[in-house]
Amino acid sequence: MYAIVEIAGQQFKAEKGRKLYVHRLSGEEGTSLSFDKILLTDNDGQVKVGTPVVEGAVVSAKILKHLKDDKVIVFKKKRRKGYQVKNGHRQYLTQIEIEDIKA
User: Fold this and answer.
1) What is the pTM of this model?
2) Which site from 34, 45, 73, 74 is most exposed, i.e. has the minimal number of CB atoms within 10 Å?
């Protein structure tokens, strides 16, 4: 069984036991969360598509840790103008583990 769930503005495929990296969520490590914005569920071929969400479906997850992603380099250049800018950042992430899907 799996579900397509929207977490922090992005869509993820959630399966029991799967670990996901999502944008930073509020909460301490080890706390449980529940997401109710389920867009689609599939239970052994029985697919339910929400309009826009599936009613009564809930995905529960546990926060494993907060971390930072690898550095992303942003480099801009314009030819023959002497213009170049190098910049970069590291995205804040949260690792969660899907505990249960109730549809």
Assistant:
1) 0.85
2) 45
Amino acid type, 41: T
**Structure-token pair, residue 10:** 């992005």
What tokens appear for 75 in the block? 């480099």
Name the strand (E) or helix (H) holding 5: strand 2-7
Question: DSSP string of the chain?
Answer: -EEEEEETTEEEEEETT-EEEEE--SS-TT-EEEE--EEEEEETTEEEE-SSS-TT-EEEEEEEEEEE---EEEEEEETTTTEEEEEEE--EEEEEEEEEEE-
On whether the CB atoms of residues 3 and 41 are closer than 8 A, the answer is: yes
